[in-house]
From TrEMBL:
Residues 31-124 form the Thoeris anti-defense 2-like domain. It comes from Shewanella mangrovisoli. This is DUF2829 domain-containing protein. Pfam families: Tad2-like. It comes from the Bacteria.
Length: 131
């Protein structure tokens, strides 16, 4: 693990993720599935194997106008906790996973590589985002 990742990563035995339940975090070497579960809960995660300093992925919640009916449990198969209430009459915006690049730019709609998905060097970076 790089020095930069050692300074950022920490470990918890379990993370409460509301609708998802508790996500087990047992080591600094998380699988892609564990990392994605944490991203859904608002955490930022990164791969220790990434070369760029300060790179991480995070969730951008979607938005939906659900009026007085209340938020549906699923929208296009995606759980309601990943949406915020949108303005009346607006089109539904689906949530997406973004990446902060080494240059500090945001890559909207980041796509994982095969190596990213098969790696077990994902690390949890900090407490969940509150926005």
């Amino acid at each position: 693990m790089s020095k930069d990742m050692n300074n950022l990563a920490f470990v918890k035995s379990g993370v409460n993720c509301g609708a998802i339940g508790e996500v087990k975090v047992t080591s600094n070497n998380l699988s892609f599935g564990e990392a994605i579960d944490l991203v859904k809960c608002g955490y930022r995660v990164a791969r220790a194997g990434w070369n760029g300093k300060g790179m991480f992925i995070f969730m951008q919640k979607g938005s939906i106008d659900y009026g007085d009916e209340g938020l549906p449990l699923l929208t296009e198969g995606i759980q309601s906790s990943l949406f915020e209430k949108g303005d009346v009459g607006t089109v539904t915006r689906l949530p997406c996973i973004n990446m902060r690049s080494a240059s500090g730019s945001t890559v909207t709609g980041w796509l994982a590589s095969q190596t990213d998905m098969l790696s077990n060097d994902w690390v949890l970076l900090h407490e969940p985002q509150t926005n």
